[in-house]
Amino acid sequence: MLELAILGLLQESPMHGYELRKELAAKLGAIRAAISYGSLYPTLRRLQAAGWITEAAGTPATAEEVPALTSRRGRVVYKITAEGKERFAQLIAQAGPETYDDTGFGVHFAFFARTDQATRLRILEGRRRTIEERREGLRDVLGRAAERLDAYTLELQRHGLDACEREVRWLEELIANERSGRAPTAPRPGVADGPRDNNSPPPPGESRKERP
């Protein structure tokens, strides 16, 4: 998933490691993009060895941009190659179990604008099945063991069930839009949460905010 995200971002513009990490956080949300330099740079080296990205001389990074012990890396700009664009096209077209879990779905969803409609639909339907199974598991726990759970554990299980039910409704709306050829409704300018109501889940990778 990190490979897919890096190649997707480098198609937009060349970046150095610090910029990539910032863009990953902006694109995927802080939770899913909690990527350390210890995982980012080995992945960049592997992509470079495969010929999917290459280095270009970059402008000197500021002290704020360069973490400790990474001064050289902060000055290396990475750009995608023609082979890297082909690799990205292969990865973005995949739809399987790894694209239905939380991280896989979040990364693929972030690049849905560059994914064909049939693949988007397969991923959305697979994600819905995954969340429905998770929902039924939570219902089973609450039905069989609720009386044995303490109040806080019970509340946590109910919270998880509520989140699953909201996401299933959200996915069903997205699937209906895909089948009818409609894109999701864009947020209104100046309205951070757009037209979603209080029962709608946040986009993948974002935390749910309290709404009035």
Describe what you observe in this structure.
This is PadR family transcriptional regulator. The structure is a single chain. The chain is mainly α and 212 residues long. The chain has helices spanning 2-12, 17-28, 37-49, 71-75, 82-92, 102-110, 117-145, 151-180; strands at residues 15-16, 53-57, 76-80. The chain has a three-stranded antiparallel beta sheet. The longest helix is centred in the C-terminal third of the chain and has 30 residues, at 151-180. The chain is globular. The chain starts with a helix and ends in a 32-residue tail after the last helix. The model is unreliable at 68-74, 191-201 and 205-212 (pLDDT under 50).
Number of helices: 8
With strands numbered from the N-terminus, the spatial order across the biggest sheet is 1-3-2
Computed structural class: mainly alpha
Most strands sheet: 3 strands, antiparallel
Strand content: 5-15%
Overall form: globular
* Rg from Cα: 20 Å
Low-confidence stretches: 68-74, 191-201, 205-212
Number of strands: 3
Organism: Micromonospora humidisoli
Protein name: PadR family transcriptional regulator
